[in-house]
Amino acid sequence: MFRTLRTAVLALLVAIAPAAAVAADVPPIAFTERTLPNGLRVIASLDRSTPNVSVQVWYGVGSKDDPEGRSGFAHLFEHLMFKATRNMPAETLDRMTEDVGGFNNASTADDFTDYYEVVPAQHLERILWAEADRMSTLVVDEAIFASERDVVKEELRQRVLASPYGRLFALYLPQASYTTHPYRRPGIGSIEELDAATIDDVRAFHQTYYRPDNAILIVVGNFDPAKLDAWVDRYFAPLKPPARALPRVTVKEPPRTGPGVFDGYGPNVPLPAVVLSWQAVAAADPDAPALKVLDAILSAGKSSRLYNSLVYDQQIAVEAFSGADLPRDPGLFMLGAIMSSGKTVDQGEAALLAEVKRLRDAPPTDAEMAEARNELLADALRERETIDGRGSAIGYAALVDGDAGAVNTALGRLQAVTAADVQRVARKYLAEDRRMTIRYRPESERAPGETPPPAPAPPKTVARYDGPVFTLAPEAERTKPPPVGEPIAPILPRPAETTLPNGLRVIVARSSDLPLVTAGLTVKVGAWADPPTLSGAAAMMAGMLTEGTKTRSAQQIASQIESLGASLASGGGLESSSVTLGALPATLPQALAIMADVTRNPAFAAEELERQRDQALDGLRVALGDPGSVAGLASGPVVFAGTPFGHVSQGTPGSLPRLTPAHLAALHATWFRPDNAILVLTGDIDPETGFRLAREAFGDWARPRTALPRTPAIRPKAPARAVGMDIPGSGQASVNVLKPSIARADPDYYPALVATSLLGGGYSARLNQEIRIKRGLSYGASALLSTARTTGSFRASAQTKNESAAEVLDLIRAEMARVAAEPAGPDELTARKSALVGGYGRTLATSGGLAGVLGGLAFHGVPLDEMAAYTAKVEAVDAAQVQAFAARALRPDGASVVVAGDAATFAEGLKARLPGLEVIPVDRLDLDSPTLRTP
Questions:
Q1: Identical fold, 32-242 and 260-445
Q2: Rounded to an integer, what distance in angstroms lies between the CA atom of residue 4 and that of residue 502?
Q3: Whole-angstrom Cα distance, residue 458 to residue 451?
Q4: How many CA atoms lie within 13 A of 156 on its CB side?
């Protein structure tokens, strides 16, 4: 409303100027490459600016290499690789990574399996030793095999069976899109085929594929190149590849000869969905860049064609998407939609086909092409912010594109794509008579008497193994890990700050030479400000900031931002609202002008509110089919009943229809003011520039003459409850133990962080050890402490098969009690503190993470130099402080329990432990009622 002439002119120029390619230099990733005599490829990329190093081993084996009748095998094996070797007891790799302040993980794709670690650089030699050891002497025994198979089955239940759309994307899409190529099989497998696997199958798989001539070792970060070469030669060069040749998938998917239809169903599908797929090309094909640009034009951002047509204009879909899945062998191109309530898959298919026809009939506009290029450029830059991101980019280029150098040439090929290229590939690949239509609907819509065909029984044996069998050597005979090197001190960003005359606090921290900037605006208003009976008002207000201003429509905002290669998002939480901008330095002034406009001048148009409300209601319908989401919705009303936190912050099916533009405008007028806000700019920006741009964009934001209202203190007093949410047919149960907790200003803040980390702050923490590692009952168990200005919250949780819910609840409560009853040992305490410090440091390594940390400190009134003091304050916490905090705040006495899943399976076991358990069918759930139940 109160814009300077400069800001107004700049906004007008952005509004009327055609999109143009953004000039930004993407620095190439410098790397060296060599190949050992045993066939191992070694790629190294030096970065002296970080105290860390990422070690990655990419194997040329993925889900397409699963033996017939053993889908999910490569993925199962990914899990086994984290267990024992001849020289390392099970979980040693976690001790060597997470416990020293790093992390490890892995992923399985169709064409590869990649294992990666990030550790402080002084641990590099030890990680190289460990990777070589598990490549050559992995222990696979019956106990390890059985335990990890159970974990994988829980992952399948969580990602596929419990998720409303898990079956669609993980099972039906590949099954319908391929007839012959092994890409047709689900990478995560099936319960039946996992159960059929034998230990011989597993050992043979390792011997066949886990060998130096089928691997690429990638090291990115701070290291001495000469030492790295010597260590690689010491630990990897002696490994011998098997004499037998590597088996390779040679089968080719035949061309489609006509269209097809596949009908899929699920027990917890709240809204129907439709996906169209076509055969496409391999990653290295000359047409691949044009298909990726086509994908961006269709669905990248809110100005994309699918969003504008299906979600915004026609309002027939709650979500529309596309994807160019171009693996090493020819893949597929797909687009699809999750339909809005009351809309059909036939409407979705017709609308999707209309968008395909538009691209076949006419090339995209110059503006669309520039926007797509800019978005792809920004995505490449964001990937390169971290050392593990750079390593992953190199590995993907090497194994999927077939050339590590493609990491530095792929963007140029994308930028060279023309509008004619996009139209040509749309005509060539998205033919009307070559599409597969996958229709996904609730099980209740299956035709009477129709049953899915039974899966063929998996073979009892697929391999005979007669090679060496490794066992953990006696401790005296094990090769010891190499020593730890000298640590490298991190260089922390130095924030500078000023307060503008209107009261806006501005913080700037230069943190990178990579051309990326994050601007985060935090406003001190959240769900606590929702008026009575209007749950979700503050969240809707914050979310609608980007949905139209006095001078820009929602579509203009999206188009202008995305044409700049920027991203702009807004949203609200319990205590605060935010507007977050990611931009290139070259276009930051224009992007900040748009950010300022949406912050200060939202229109809250009635038609936009109706559109956003309908989408939010459909989102709730989807959430009510997912056990983790249902438990999350119930948590606030259970733990904070009777306080301003005691409702569903994102709104309910009852409250959202009551919201009006006047409600949102009143909240905005009261709380969105410069003296109630904090602006943080981080990345490739210096303080002088940041302060100048803040003044230009926000300096004339007028401070109201009225005093800022007081914010309420949150003092929960409601008794603990035990609630079971019944979702019939749910593939898993979400088990949650909840308590109110401390404020950020509490003197026990750092002991609280360490205590929570000890209990459930990572893979090595106690909950995960007891529930996943020892018993295979969950894909992961965790604990989360959320501090707030007056009262925070604590949550310990895990998802498990429904029949294990009571057992998992027992384990969570037992571990909460043990933290309070017993002091932690010195080694465990050191490890969990290292995990906190390492995670904090990695957060500061990205512009978005740094902006979040600085904004959080400012929001809670903590001096900014706390960022530099974090490590010392964590390290100073002792076992007595941890135990004292746990006794005060983490004991299970008085905690609430929320379990969501199929109550027919878990209710009886829970009632034996929780006599007051309330079982609420999800179709009787009333999120506006204190009882959570409809009358």
A1: yes
A2: 14
A3: 20
A4: 23
Parts of the chain with a pLDDT under 70: 1-25
Asked if 265 and 445 touch (Cβ cutoff 8 Å), the reply is: yes
Tokens of 42: 């070694």
- Give the SS3 label for residue 136: helix
pLDDT the model gives residue 640: 97
The CATH fold assigned to 260-445 is Cytochrome Bc1 Complex; Chain A, domain 1 (3.30.830)
Q: Is 449 left (phi over 0), alpha (psi -120 to 50) or beta?
A: left
What's the CA gap between 449 and 442, in Å, rounded?
Answer: 15
pLDDT score recorded for residue 24: 54
Assigned architecture for domain 722-924: 2-Layer Sandwich (3.30)
Q: What is the per-residue pLDDT across 560-588, written as a single tens digit (0 to 9) for each? A: 999 998 999 999 999 999 999 999 999 99
- What's the pLDDT at 632? 97
Q: Contact, 221 vs 186, CB < 8 A? A: no
Please give the structure tokens belonging to residue 596: 């300022």
What pLDDT score does 6 carry?
A: 25
Domain boundaries, the chain: 5-21+492-698, 32-242, 260-445, 722-924
Residue matched to tokens 């931009």:
583
pLDDT at 25: 66
Residue reference for tokens 């995209």: 364
- Both tokens of 457, joined, read 């029984």
b/e 465-487 (16+ beta carbons within 10 angstroms → b)? beeeebebeeeeeeeebbeebee
- What pLDDT was estimated at residue 84? 95
Helices (H), ranges, 739-825: 749-760, 766-768, 805-821
Residue found under tokens 């990572």? 762
Per-residue confidence (pLDDT) for residue 512, from 0 to 100: 87
Distance CA 98, CA 116 (A): 12
CB contact at 8 A, 850 and 844: yes
**Cα(95)–Cα(484) distance, integer angstroms:** 13
Q: Give 629-641 as a 3 state SS string.
A: HHHHHHHHHHHCC
Q: Please name the CATH architecture into which domain 5-21+492-698 falls.
A: 2-Layer Sandwich (3.30)
Q: What is the pairing mode between strands 918-921 and 722-726?
A: parallel
Distance (Å, rounded) from C-alpha 615 to C-alpha 341?
A: 9
Instruction: Give helix then strand counts, H and E, for the chain.
Output: 32, 23
Instruction: Give Cα 445 distance to the centre of its chain.
Output: 32
32-242, superfamily in CATH?
Metalloenzyme, LuxS/M16 peptidase-like (3.30.830.10)
The amino acid occupying position 824 is A
Taking each helix axis from N to C end, the angle separating 406-415 and 366-383, rounded to the nearest 10 degrees, works out to 160
Q: Residue 860: is it exposed, middle or buried by C-beta count within 10 angstroms (0-12/13-18/19+)?
A: middle
Q: At what angle do helices 588-600 and 687-698 cross, to 10 degrees?
A: 40
Residues facing 65 on adjacent strands: none
Read off the pLDDT of residues 427-463 as tens digits, 9 standing for 90 and up.
Answer: 999 998 999 999 999 999 998 888 887 888 898 878 8
Structure tokens given for 185: 């099989």
CA 557 – CA 668 distance, rounded (Å): 19
